[in-house]
Structure formats: structure tokens, C-alpha cells
Amino acid sequence: RLRDRLRAVRYGPHGAADQAELAEELTQVLKVLGGEPVGGGPRRHVRVLVAIALCLLGSRADAQGPSPEALYRAGAVRAAADGFAARIARHPDDPAAWYDLGAASYRGGADGRAAAAWAKAARLAPRDGTIRHARGLLAPPDLATEDLLAVGPLTRAEWALLAGVCWVVWWGTVLLGRRRLSLWIGIAGLAIVASGSYEWWRLSRPVVVVVEGPAPVRSAPFGGASAASSLPAGAAGLVVQTYGGWVEVSRPDGVRGWILQSEVMRL
Fold it and tell me: At what angle do helices 95-107 and 77-90 cross, to 10 degrees?
């Protein structure tokens, strides 16, 4: 990502609006790469050479670059977030990668992206104390979001496993003639099936979280359409349909309309 931004500054028609931030990010990445010299004289030349290398190196630089954890520790949180996002693309069911993405986003001031990443991490590891503590740092912006992002104590796979164990135990008590015990186990099994089915339905809903807010909610999927309302960063909604680069969302509080897909993250 940093290499692409440097290319845009060098070859793009408009340069970069955040040149100061880009320079600070480059300095932090250089420290991780070991390119920060001790003396002050050759520092500029080393930075220029490394910047050119970052611009021109292709897949080899991506493969041999610093780890996202090293970038995070050095303070290059935006580059670290991109590294964690790349790790998620390879391992989408890794709750640790989602948590790390949320931590890097939160440290970089992207609260909406952090809330979305931690919500996804909580779905994959609902009883993890670190994830629960992290989610407590960002309160939901409204009650509709709180309901859409709520997570139960078990994952869908764990609910299914618990129901299967209860089914086997129930049949065992029936075959042994333990009627009273089989009755109670049957009632418990029905409660588990009902709770698991509700959790399965809730987590199967197509939920998106606003990562770039406030996001205008437009009446039609094009930029010139009127926006009757907007959603803050971290707000959630249900996906109704998608069209081009737009997604239509609906919320329990009555808000419904189109938002740019680049402004939301799907869980």
C-alpha cells in the first residue's frame, strides 16, 4: 500500500493530499526495514533509495517485507492494518487476524473498521476475553447496531456439536429405560436446538458495518441521488441487495437506502 501511494505521488496527476502523513509512515516503515542510519548526513539518500525500491519492487517485496506485527510495534499502523487484511484474505476464519486488524485500525483512528473487525473476531471466538474487552472500547452508536452485532456464548459449530451430544445422550437414556432422565434431557435438548437455531439464523444474516462515516444513505445507487440520512462509522445494517459498487441496507429503526460498498465492511 505504501508503495502504491508513493507511485501516486511520483506519477499521479494530483500527487498526494497527505504528504506529511505519507512521510511519517515512510519513516516508520524504514525503521522496521533497518534503513534508518545513525548519522544525519546520508539519511536523505538512504530514504530516497529505499523509497525507489519500494516503488519498483513487485511481488518479491511483498513476500519478503516486514511482518504486520513489526510494523504495528514500530507505529506504522496503516501498513500493519493492510498486512493483517492480507492475512485475513488467506485465513478468513482466524479470529486472531481479525482482532489484530481491529487493533491496528483502532490505533490508527479508524474506529468503524476496528468495530467491524472486532465484531467478526467475536463471531469466530465469542468467549475470548481479549476480544470482548476490545469491543468494550467502542460502544455501538445506536440500539439497532447493538442488536445486529450481538454475539451469543457459542459459535454455530459449537451449538451443532452440543445438540448432537444431547441427542446421543437422550437416545442412551431411552434405551436404558430412564424415562424421567430422558424427559429432562429431551427438554434440555429442545432448548439447545431452539437457541442454536436462533443463533444460526442471526449470524447468517448479511450484515455490513460502516467503516467510513458518516456514510450518506441515498435513495438510489448513484452519487447524485438524494440522501435522506447518514450512518456514522461503526453503524450496522442488513444487506438487501447489491448493484455495481453500491449496497442497499435496511435497519430495524427504519433507515433504508444505498451506500457505497467502499464505505462498509461485510461480516
Answer: 160
